[in-house]
Amino acid sequence: MSGPPLAWYLILSAVLFALGVAGFLFRKSIITIFMSIELMLNAVNLSFVAFSYQLKQVNGHVFAFFVMVVAAAEAAVGLAIIVTVFKNRETLNVDEVDSMKY
Amino acid sequence: MMDALFFYLFATLVLGGAILTVTRRNAVHSAISLIVSLIGVAGLYLLQQAEFLFAVQIVLYVGGIMVLFLFVIMLVNLDQAAKQRRFNRQWWIALLCVTAVGVEIAYFVRKGASAFSMARPPVAAVANAGGNTEQIADVLFRQYLLPFEIASVLLLVAVVGSVVMAKKRI
Fold it and tell me: pTM of the prediction?
């Protein structure tokens, strides 16, 4: 097996996931929180593809593809929610958007 | 050797982009950094012979989702948000969680490659005839036909849902 070993990819994926978690928990703007979610999804995809390459199967690719589909749907709905929230409250700070009723 | 070089190049792109995404104050700068990170991930896919996912990553993420993000960032007015504090009040809980994840990673790195020991791959399950896209299509439409259909229904629901939310009156 040529190329970098599996562990490198997994460590990179774990660090990327941790960065996504950090952004998700630390930031205040809903948009940045959304971007952190995308980072985490990409980290998971990366480890799917790494395992798939290691095992010489394409099942992992199929799973990564499904994750991308769900990410696209999530981004469309989530960004529509962000626009609606901003129209109603004129803020995107998660500390202020803390009740579902307005 | 060449592979390792490319791995380091793309890993630098991925991690640098991710760090900038999390730390930049301006949302547009964050989005641009995220694009750099996603392109780095696409490069890693190519390094692992996942050509189909490489193309999908570029077209779907960089071309679709990130353009959507930039649209929304420009639709909402973030000028006053940029002046406020960047981080929220529960920062100590967040720090705890991130430290836990970091400790976990450090543990695996210290244990080294043996932490990731794997069973030998069964046999080359898929014959190597045809390209990567052909193999994926084969598996997708034979083994994963039902999830594929469910995913298409999910996309339909997302389309209808975002239209309903965006319109004032149906």
Answer: 0.85
Residue owning tokens 């193999």: B135
Count of other CB atoms within 10 angstroms of residue B39: 17
Interface check for A33 against chain B (CB to CB < 8 A): the answer is: no
Name B71's Cβ contacts closer than 8 Å, sequence gap at least 6: A79
Which H, E and C letters describe B86-137, residue by residue? CECCCHHHHHHHHHHHHHHHHHHHHHHHHHHCCCCCCCCCCCCCCCHHHHHH
Question: Which positions ≥6 away from A38 have C-beta within 8 Å?
Answer: A20, A71, A75, B34, B38, B61, B65
- The whole-angstrom separation of Cα A89 and Cα B13 is 36
Q: What is the least distance, in Å, from the CA of A76 to any CA of chain B?
A: 7
B146 touches A at CB < 8 Å: no
Give the count of alpha carbons within 13 A of B63, CB side only: 8
How many angstroms separate the CA atoms of B162 and A80, rounded? 6
Candidate from B14, B50, B162 with C-beta closest to A49: B50
- The predicted-structure confidence for B35-57, as pLDDT tens digits, reads as follows 999 999 999 999 988 889 999 99
Q: Which domains does chain B have, with CATH numbers?
A: 2-82+130-169 (1.20.120.1200)
- Which class is domain A27-89? mainly alpha
CB contact under 8 A, B21 and A23: yes
ipTM score: 0.90
Smallest Cα distance from B62 to chain A, Å:
11
In this predicted model, what pLDDT tens digit does every residue of B7-25 receive, in sequence order? 999 999 999 999 999 988 8
